Fold:
Amino acid sequence: MDAQSNHGRRKGYELLRLAASFAFFFGVWELVGRWPLSAAFPSFSLTFMAFLRMIGDGSFLNAYASTLQPLLIGFTICGIIGVGFGIWMGLSRAMEWFSLPVFVILQAAPMAAVIPLITYTYGVGLTAKVLAVAVLSTPLVVMNSYKGIRNTNPSLIQMCRSFQATKTQVVLKIILPQAAGMIFTGLRMGLAMGFVGVVIAELLITPTGIGDLITYHASVADFPEMFAAVSSIILLAAVTINALERIQRRLFPPELQG
Amino acid sequence: MSVDSVVTLKNIGKIYDTGVEALKGVNFDFPVGKLSTLLGPSGCGKTTLLKIIGGLIDATSGEVWVNGKPITGPGPDRAFVFQDFALLPWATILRNVSFGLELRGVPKEERFEIARKYIREVGLEGFESNFPHQLSGGMRQRVGLARALTVDADIILMDEPFSSVDEQTRRKFQEDMLDLLQNRHKTVIFVTHSIEEAAYMSDLIVLLSARPGAVSQVIRPGIDRSGKCADDIRRDKKYLDVVDTIWRELKVYLC
Structure:
């Protein structure tokens, strides 16, 4: 009972802190926006009103209907192929020998630089945007899956062997479950990169969806609307990634938080 | 080989890939149904030797014979208890304890029933659906012990099972384990670095020399446990003599 009320109090404190932090940030934004520095920097209140307006008139709904398409398709492809490939790399010495150096480089490289190249090859359609998402998110997903497999506690494998487990049993009952936490982390970080990928694609390749909202409102100098569009994608990404983090904490014991 | 030895080491040697020679010319007969301890200065290859007996590590030279046959790997005649417990963090205590049986394809109902029995015996009743991270170190090792008992191997190999357990829990656990093993006719080979633990628990203490490890002396404490409580044993003259003998022997390697 005591522990529970304690827990509740801590949760309340965390919420309060979050609110205070936001209030401070938005307050500074409001002040700087009201300062006659640049006409292209709207105050928080103007942006917020524009945000509500854009929810009301359905422009967000339309925009996200098209933005989420390449994001979801690209991320699903990357999730299946990336996780599969990462697991393969972790289990097979030969595969690791060939592909690890490439993925170590890809993981650190600014993959956004490839997007113009994708446009050159695949044009400006959905395919190019899907690829942009996949190219940005795949290296992280592959590397995390690989590391998850490789980080298996050797003592658990010995334990399995001591009970005469087969190789297949070791993979299915020890290696894969143990890697699940890190694979999930990889997917979560991959999705964050996917958001980056889709925004870059929509700004760089052809303006559609949220990229169109941003570029259009910038071109006609509707700066509150433009800022509202930018804020909306940040908000969506933050809420999604945070929700995934919560799910992960529920799903896996502390040893497997990756 | 004498009739009543169950594990025989024939000239075991182990050189690691790094070139370190861990063991050299280890010969020994472990008597059946007794608790034998491997004790020695740190780095003398006690754990390596135990894992060779378990078939988890290959010896560079020599052979391990179990029940009159040379071994080629792990077998159903031996069960291992690990220093770091080696529990599945994502599985409940019930599944962890029954995991050895699960790997052998024992049907769920049957293996859970066996597991419940051993969970009760190691004193963890009521924790069946908990997860390892919710248990203390001592309780986790009880899970490890219960898991080793479920497969009903004749030989139980224990690699410093109490080293990650705090001193007070350890004493209680040692007593409980002796109770558990009594009348079960198990052969236990036990690695420890604690002189008191070796003297208190063993029928036989095998002292290993510093690296490369070899058998340097065999001590039979011969403490009469019948009808005595643990604290009496710890005040027993024989117990204190054994501790003293081992300490004098090991001190040589500590410079």
The longest helix of chain A spans residues 167-204. The radius of gyration of chain A is 23 Å. Chain A has a mean pLDDT of 90.
